[in-house]
């Protein structure tokens, strides 16, 4: 279980937008890559949630999963 928890910060970093690119419209290739990363993060979130839903979560796991879910939601909203 701890192995998967080490992946979550990497996923969060993967979908976090670059602050230097704020206000700059992404090129088509960059946008496609960003959306792909978002889809990967969503799939990982769902699979982790399903896997550990049976066993329950401790506070650290819950906080990391909630942070990942919030980042995914925020990133989706930025593409609209």
Describe the structure.
It is built from 3 helices and no strands. It has 80 residues and is an all-alpha fold. It has a domain of 40 residues. The chain is elongated and about 45 Å long. It starts with a helix and ends with a helix.
Low-confidence stretches: none
Q: Which descriptor suits the 3D outline?
A: elongated
Q: What is the typical, i.e. mean, pLDDT?
A: 77
Percent strand: under 5%
What is the count of β-strands? 0
**Helicity, as a percent range:** over 70%
Listing every helix as H and every strand as E from the N terminus to the C terminus, the arrangement reads: HHH
How would you sum up the major sheet? Answer: none
Cα(first) to Cα(last) distance is 34 Å
Q: Provide a count of the helices.
A: 3
Rg over CA atoms: 14 Å
Find the structural class using helix and strand composition: mainly alpha
Q: How do the strands and helices of this protein lay out in sequence?
A:
Layout: H1 2-15, H2 28-53, H3 59-79
Q: Which descriptors apply to this entry?
A:
80 residues; mainly alpha; 3 helices; elongated
Write a brief structural summary.
This protein is an all-alpha fold. The chain has a domain at 41-80. The protein has helices at 2-15, 28-53, 59-79.
